[in-house]
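Table 4 source record.
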Amino acid sequence: MSIKFLLDENTPYALIGLLESRGFTVIHLKKIGKGGIKNGEVCEFAEKNKMWIITRDADFQNIKKFNNYNVAGIILIKLTLTKTDYLLKSLQRFLDKYNDKLSEKRLVIIEDYVIRIY
């Protein structure tokens, strides 16, 4: 199964390289001219294309709403440091340790000192 990621407009382009280097298919909303679309449209696009959403938008952390989404999954990045390098290292740690969690629908919240997986 090929895992595909949809990067929300609030994520750095540098994530594309990290994810593609691990064999994932990646689309960034800004690169396809969809920057500024509403969260519902982000979900619709991800549902239609069977993609995981990677975002910094805390609106996606509501577990009740998440259960209604028909997306492959959501990774919410909630880090105190906004530097791209820190974000990349945090996502890399998640992928190194929990790559197997991408095989089914989950809500993943990556924080500074904890990764919550629902």
